[in-house]
TrEMBL record:
Protein name: Glycosyltransferase family 2 protein
Classification of source organism: Bacteria, Pseudomonadati, Pseudomonadota, Betaproteobacteria, Burkholderiales
Alphabetized UniProt keyword annotations: Cell membrane, Glycosyltransferase, Membrane, Transferase, Transmembrane, Transmembrane helix
Source organism (scientific name): Allopusillimonas soli
Ribosomal protein in keyword set: no
One matching Pfam family: Glycos_transf_2
Gene Ontology annotations for the cellular component aspect, listed alphabetically: plasma membrane
Domain of life of the native organism: Bacteria
């Protein structure tokens, strides 16, 4: 990733860095892209600042890439970043942050669930000295009860077990100062749970509440399975509580086992109650077997993570970048 950073950050073709970069990951978002561009442009122009829109195409299979090409050719403020395939939102965000040049960077979703109209407020907080401005959802529209309830529980559990305070009900929508973005760049882990990393870097942080509208168009890219995956990723990236839980329950079960054995010995020798107990034996085997498999599974999750980190594969690959209408193929990493 660093050679690539050097290549593109060497300043070639870059005159003055904009004050603000808005980074948006896009995966099959052709339905919202025109609306997003229009609303962002309207808000940003009214602010009288220099800005760039870093739109990252995360290997979309629909018309998103073509639309982005057209946009980048017609609007000099658009920096279009094309990843070589679908790497997932966390990777797309990382790519966008790496390619951004602004003094402040705002990260938001493409589907207008993060309203661009809030940007002036975020800029104000940044100008007043905040390095990180978190946008906290007061309410969420258009999301099922199950999704809201599971999100609620997830954030509470995550916070209880992780070493850093990961703000509840805060998505990826936030503003980061250049210093904060540079700090994030130092985090080299491959499996990137961005919400956690944003919190992990610290820096003076301000929170702004807003009501989250429903998706403007198109469908959510997440199904329950991938959300559960993300939740697990979040917890295992920021905590070893599951390992500790395995240790503690192992300890308790072992203790129970010893007591039970003592009881059996006493029962057999003192009370003279010989062979019996197929039910107790089979239930013990089942409980212990289950607990062991669970603990091994949890261990495996962490070993798997280590395995992926150890490979040190790049988090993403960029196919090409169009900046100020100028395409640049990725030729070296
Ligand atoms: N996204 C992405 N890559 C993916 C999946 C999603 O870049 O593999 C982007 C998507 O285009 C959107 C953002 O991540 O800009 C959030 O996705 P979505 O709105 O589907 O998630 P939800 O709001 O339902 O959690
Ligand atoms: Mg969304």
């Amino acid at each position: 990733m660093n050679a690539l950073t050097d290549l593109w950050h060497s300043g070639a073709g870059r005159s003055v860095d904009p004050e603000l970069s808005v980074v948006v990951p896009l995966y099959n978002e052709h339905e919202v892209l025109p609306m997003l561009h229009e609303r962002l442009t309207r808000v940003l122009r009214s602010q009288g600042i220099t800005y760039e829109l870093v739109l990252v195409d995360d290997g979309s299979q629909d018309a998103t890439s073509d639309m982005l090409d057209t946009l980048a050719a017609s609007d000099q403020a658009v920096t279009a970043v094309f990843l070589s395939r679908n790497f997932g939102k966390e990777a797309a965000l990382t790519a966008g942050l790496q390619q951004s040049a602004g003094q402040a960077v705002i990260v938001m979703d493409a589907d207008l669930q993060d309203p661009p109209e809030l940007i002036p407020q975020m800029l104000l907080a940044w100008r007043n000295g905040a390095d990180v401005v978190n946008m906290r959802r007061r309410s969420r529209e258009g999301e099922s009860f199950l999704k809201r309830a599971s999100a609620y529980c997830f954030y509470r559990v995550l916070n209880a077990v992780s070493e850093v305070d990961i703000p509840a009900d805060t998505g990826d929508f936030r503003l980061l100062s250049r210093a904060a973005v540079n700090a994030l760049d130092l985090v080299v882990e491959r499996k990137r749970y961005m919400k956690g990393l944003f919190a992990w870097i610290g820096f003076p942080t301000v929170e702004i509440e807003y009501d989250r509208p429903a998706r403007a168009a198109g469908a959510s890219k997440w199904d329950y399975l991938s959300l559960i995956g993300l939740a697990f990723e979040g917890i295992t990236s920021f905590s070893i509580a599951p390992l500790r839980l395995a240790t503690i329950s192992g300890l308790l079960i072992a203790l129970g086992g010893v007591l039970f054995t003592l009881w059996i010995v006493v029962k057999t020798l003192v009370l003279g109650d010989p062979v019996q107990g197929y039910p107790s034996m089979i239930s013990l085997i089942a409980v212990l077997g289950g607990a062991q498999l669970l603990a091994i599974g949890v261990l495996g999750e962490y070993i798997g993570k280590t395995y992926f980190e150890a490979k040190r594969r790049p988090v993403f690959l960029i196919r090409n970048v169009v900046r100020r209408g100028q395409p640049r193929q990725a030729t070296a990493w």
